[in-house]
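Hi U.,

Before I forget, here's the chain from the pilot set. I'm dumping it here mostly so it's searchable later in email.
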Amino acid sequence: MKKFIAAMMMMAMLAIMMPLAADAQVRGTRNYRTRTATNDVYRKPNIYQRHRNLINIGIGTGAGALLGGIFGGKKGALIGTAIGAGGSALYTYKINPKNGRRYRVFR
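Structure:
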């Protein structure tokens, strides 16, 4: 059981770190958006900014499943998954919403 919990924790850490590490390689992969009227150049938002809601809900779901599995076994993991997903969705969409996209302008 301890090996299983340790393996699940390592997989969760890997799942959290992969999107952050994937955006570190920027040489030759920059995407710029240009407006023809003023010639302003906009930088494309990073992975977290584009998929913030899904990442936050996924982290909350994983944490709920992990805690539920530790304290209640399989049934606790299912209950923890539901509670974690609901709580993180509530936080993401209602308590702390981020509206609009913010781009940095380079002139």
